[in-house]
Design brief:
Largest sheet of chain B: 5 strands, mixed, barrel
Distance between the termini of chain B: 24 Å
CATH architecture of one domain in chain B: Beta Barrel
Oligomer: heterodimer
Number of strands of chain A: 12
Strand content of chain B: 25-35%
CATH superfamily of one domain in chain B: Nucleic acid-binding proteins
Order of helices and strands of chain B: HHEEEEEEEEEHHEEEEEEEHHH
Radius of gyration of chain B: 22 Å
Radius of gyration of chain A: 20 Å
Distance between the termini of chain A: 39 Å
Shape of chain A: elongated
Largest sheet of chain A: 6 strands, mixed
Structural class of chain B: alpha+beta
Strand order of the largest sheet of chain B: 7-8-9-11-10
Structural class of chain A: alpha+beta
Helix content of chain A: 25-40%
Strand content of chain A: 25-35%
Shape of chain B: flat
Number of strands of chain B: 16
């Protein structure tokens, strides 16, 4: 990451204070978002999202597994993120591990809800095939190819798009068996079920610079932040997850204010993402 | 190249058609571009000097790089397009300080070599001898990450560092603005690299290394004094608009001259384009069309 001189830092901070960021955006304006789905043919679902200079790919693979004994009526989802060295040379080797695990944890919190599975954005019960015996395991992988700030929002959007693109094969449980045996299953090659993503939330990161918050910070602006709060909101306006980064502490009233700003921004972001995703799916169907 | 740009710019159907049409008009009639091992036609009667990117093989002159063939008097050379900046003596460059060493500052120039600034080459230093107090005070003048503007001098004997000169008050530390990075080949050599746009009160410095500075006009005579006043909203808008004009021209691959930049700036005003929308596909197509018109007229 290139540092900024004192003069440039003042310029960035002053711009944010005057509602004129370095590329002319207002504080609550997103950069143009570009969505492409079906980029990885071998995966059950995939998507590539570009927000300005940030470029990420998300893929979803479904495999047959056993539900955990604590939650026998739900499937399992695991989220892994990899920051590629092509984004930043410092991500090579083990350099990107800290950031990757931080992002994966934040995404899991936003998408999967609590330990009991309550409040999950993804409906885990829909992944169940036979209670206690067979379920779908979803492995969601995110790859950061180019990093220009706001990785979490981009990854959240990519995962939402990838899940919309996901088709899980239909499974027929062939025969009734005794309780301690695994049932035989027949995975259909023909019939697929689209994954239901109506309740998958989007993530909005609010970066605090000085006394103002901005949405969709570039890498330059992120270097000047005092703290950042990422809030994931779903279609109905409920908060599914909350993550705070950054060294400086925040007054609780500031957090409440940020939450209301995030809810307001989510409305436009959610509709924009939905239209971009459906356009991408339509494009993919044509080609 | 045109197809690549279309994908980057996300043009819709009508925009694609307009863009392609304008790009066609911009294609030059004579095609001087060459790839490796193309032969360069020249008259054996006149003595031609073979410059960079050429080599004599079996009595024939072949190119060794991909680029554009240029003839300057008797010199024939191949100018590459996407190469790293190669510092030439007398060039104006903009750089960022990356290290404060014992008696000098190391400056990043977006080139294979770093630049070198010593206190001997700063303004107000008339053959000053380096005392130990000077060395301790180095951080008062320039620190890491500061942006400076300088002229390129000779390169060191071992070729590792390029000497930079900042002798007159024109050069020095830059603040109150933003630094933009473009491909070095878009900034051509000219007589004037500092441009003071009076109507807007803005300094525009086109560094030949591809670093471009757009900022508020430095008022004080001593460029090392930092002025902490807040930039007015009007000046800031002009700075951002010019910055975005440069970004658009750089994405489209058009050579950057102050005239072209100001034209793009004025175009954005006449078309009532919001500053942020200048980076959108519609404005890119407009700029391409206007450039095509300008070149066919000229």
């Amino acid at each position: 990451m290139v540092g900024l001189s004192i003069g440039e830092q003042h310029f960035v901070k002053g711009g944010i204070a005057q509602d004129l960021r370095t590329d002319g955006r207002k504080r609550l304006t997103y950069r143009p978002i570009y969505v492409e789905t079906g980029v990885i043919p071998q995966a059950n679902g995939s998507a590539r999202v570009k927000i300005g200079g940030t470029d990420v790919i998300a893929s979803v693979k479904a495999e047959i597994g056993r539900p955990s004994s604590l939650q026998p009526d739900k499937g399992k989802v695991a989220v892994f993120i990899d920051c590629s060295p092509t984004a930043e040379p410092t991500f090579g080797g083990r350099g990107g591990e800290e950031l990757s695990s931080e992002l994966a944890l934040a995404l899991q919190r936003c998408l999967l809800g609590g330990k009991s599975g309550a409040g999950a954005g993804i409906n885990l019960s829909s992944l169940l095939i036979k209670e206690g015996k067979v379920c779908w395991d979803l492995y969601i992988d995110g790859l950061v190819i180019s990093s220009d700030g706001n990785l979490l929002d981009a990854l959240g959007a990519a995962i939402k798009a990838a899940l919309t693109n996901t088709a899980i094969p239909k499974v027929n449980v062939s025969a009734e068996v005794a309780d301690d045996e695994q049932p035989e299953i027949d995975i259909s090659d023909e019939e697929y079920l689209q994954f239901d993503t109506s309740s998958v939330p989007v993530i909005v990161t609010l970066t605090k610079v000085g006394t103002h918050y901005i949405v969709d910070a570039t890498a330059e602006e992120e270097s000047q932040m005092s703290s950042a709060v990422s809030i994931s909101v779903n279609r109905v306006g409920h908060i599914c997850g909350l993550t705070k980064r950054g060294g400086s502490g925040l007054d609780p009233s500031v957090i409440l204010d940020m939450i209301s700003v995030a809810k307001h921004v989510t409305e436009t972001l959610m509709s924009k993402l939905d239209s971009e995703i459906s356009a991408a799916e339509a494009c993919e169907d044509e080609s | 190249m045109g197809k690549l740009r279309e994908v980057e710019l996300l043009l819709n159907q009508t925009q694609k058609v307009r863009f392609e049409r304008a790009m066609e008009r911009l294609q030059s009639r004579t095609n001087n571009s060459v790839i490796v091992a193309d032969s360069i036609p020249f008259n054996h009667d006149e003595a031609f000097l073979k410059g960079h990117g050429t080599s004599l093989v079996d009595g024939e002159s072949l190119t060794t790089v991909c680029g554009v063939v240029n003839h300057v008097d008797k010199l024939v050379y191949v100018r590459t397009l996407r190469a790293r900046y190669k510092a030439e003596v007398g060039d104006i460059v903009v750089g960022r300080v990356i290290e404060v060493a014992q008696s000098r500052w190391r400056v990043e120039l977006n080139s294979t070599q770093d630049g070198l600034l010593t206190s001997m080459n700063m303004p107000d230093a008339v053959q000053k001898r380096n005392t130990s107090v000077d060395e301790l005070n180095m951080r008062n003048i320039l620190v890491e990450d500061d942006v400076v503007c300088a002229q390129v001098g000779e390169s060191q004997r071992d070729g590792s560092l390029q000497l930079l000169l900042a002798r007159s008050h024109k050069y020095g530390k830059l603040h109150k603005g933003q630094l933009l990075k473009v491909d070095p080949y878009l900034v051509r050599r000219s007589n004037l690299h500092f441009h003071f746009i009076e109507s807007l009160g803005i300094d525009l410095i086109l560094g030949r290394n591809g670093f471009i500075w757009v900022g508020e006009h430095a008022q004080s005579n001593d460029p090392m004094v930092v002025d902490n006043e807040i930039i007015s909203s009007k000046t800031r808008q002009s700075i951002l608009r010019i910055g975005n004009a440069i970004r658009v021209l750089s994405t489209l691959g058009f050579t950057l001259t102050p005239a072209v930049i100001m034209e793009t700036f004025n175009l954005s005003h006449t078309e009532n384009v919001q500053i942020h929308d200048m980076l959108g596909s519609e404005f890119h197509v407009l700029v391409t069309e206007r450039e095509a018109e300008r070149r066919t007229r000229a």
